[in-house]
Prior knowledge:
By secondary structure, the chain is an alpha/beta fold. It has helices at about 55-65, 95-110, 130-140, 165-175, 195-200, 210-215, 220-230, 260-270, 295-310; strands at about 35-40, 85-90, 115-120, 140-145, 175-185, 205-210, 235-240, 275-280.
Amino acid sequence: xxxxxxxxxxxxxxxxxxxxxxxxxxxxxxxxxxxxxxxxxxxxxxxxxxxxxxxxxxxxxxxxxxxxxxxxxxxxxxxxxxxxxxxxxxxxxxxxxxxxxxxxxxxxxxxxxxxxxxxxxxxxxxxxxxxxxxxxxxxxxxxxxxxxxxxxxxxxxxxxxxxxxxxxxxxxxxxxxxxxxxxxxxxxxxxxxxxxxxxxxxxxxxxxxxxxxxxxxxxxxxxxxxxxxxxxxxxxxxxxxxxxxxxxxxxxxxxxxxxxxxxxxxxxxxxxxxxxxxxxxxxxxxxxxxxxxxxxxxxxxxxxxxxxxxxxxxx
Length: 315
Ligand SMILES: N=C(N)NCCCC(=O)O
Ligand SMILES: [Zn+2]
Ligand SMILES: [Zn+2]
């Protein structure tokens, strides 16, 4: 096996020079194959409030220029022990949600066909449904940890089935999730009715609210989540609005009272050794951002996801 090709060396080429790929990694077409592909989905036609997450992938790539190759918190060099590459963006129809959902499922399945695991940068949360479908094609019904201010298990908006508020209800209906191992983390904010929580519970979700994270602390929350997941194939879906608007202003449906970026990153690190098979980071809407606060946070989250995959090399 040839050595993985890593990022551009920032001691030779200034990190602010050249086109942005995630963490300055090679493009997928520059390597034979990748163990992990970081792929963008610039789609935001499923939003219920502020648009703009279509610009998330390029903002996160730009904000990822400062990432370095060794992760001290997890003691891993994620670009040295596995080939990581930037697969570019999945081009999907911005005028037709149903068609876009199909396109994303097919493109993700094609990328993952030879064992490549995907870290996807959104795009709005609609894209989690086709990504979960693609993951379930390979692994069967999978465990899900969903980090979000919102439940995203609502039924329809204006009669539309595929929106950023409904992906996980669709996924449960389709039988692609392991309903013994579903949790929301960071949930908060007003709901439409108490019934939202009843419906959500009936679908099988456990809820660790944002206040629970504050009261119980990161370690206890991690223990509880890990017990629920066990060894199952696990997918992580991270809506950046799980963070407090102070930590992630650049998003479409902000809610007060969220996690700090430190809490989120520490919970992720607590998942080291879990059987992670794929992940997404969604809802970065750069037009509402300031000083790249949100896209920097998202790029670090994506780096941690790639690092967790490095610790779960099955091959
Ligand atoms: N997935 C995100 N970010 N938001 C869902 C909010 C749905 C609503 O407007 O009620
Ligand atoms: Zn959300
Ligand atoms: Zn969401």
